[in-house]
Structure prediction request, 228 residues.
Amino acid sequence: MMKTLQRRKLEARAHRDSELKRQAEEARKAAEAAALKKSARRSLIRSILGWSTAVAVVAGMVVLTNWANDLGERNRQAYREEIANTEFSLVTDSTDSLLRRVDGSYYSVSTDDIGVVSYAYSTVDERGGVVERSVSSREITGERFLWIKEMQPVDVTVKVIDPEAVSQEPRVVGEICTAEPIDSSKPSYTDDPRSAFGPDGHPADDLYGPRLCVNRVTLWVPDGAIQP
Prediction:
């Protein structure tokens, strides 16, 4: 009888221990499942936030690009309207008389290694003294970009004096660009007309490409006075 009771107690204890182990295992699995679920939820939230941020950045870039394009188009339209209301012309700046050099020529021409053509000549100053001067196909202005000075193109031409012209005097005629509003009540171009390019403010060919206006220098010489 005593052995039966002891056996039953042992069996009950073993059953209780087994039940406790089962409950502990279920609790462990439940905790692991909860942790995995929580981790998955966090991962999903991070993914949603990441995608939301990416979408917001892309949308912002699209909006910014459209805004920049609209602003650029408005500026270009305003520029075109200013140009349309501006009259560009050349005004005579000065006239110098050429002097015949010792070698019999009126001027000499030279070209440097970057293709700038220079025309050297002599003239007379206000006191009657002979002064050596020159004009070039590129004019250095006061504008500077980093260490490079801006060079504006100059239209230099040599023309032979017509034998039947009233004035047979060799001379140098300089003309400078001017910009005047057609209708003063409307916006017009107010910057240096030599610095601006075509209708949209961009060069068609190169940095010395089409300009709104280019200063001009004309050397008038007698027939046969053109020297290389």
Helices lie at 2-84. Strands lie at 86-97, 107-111, 117-124, 130-136, 138-145, 148-160, 171-181, 215-221. The chain is about 35% helix and 30% strand. Confidence is low (pLDDT under 50) at residues 203-208.
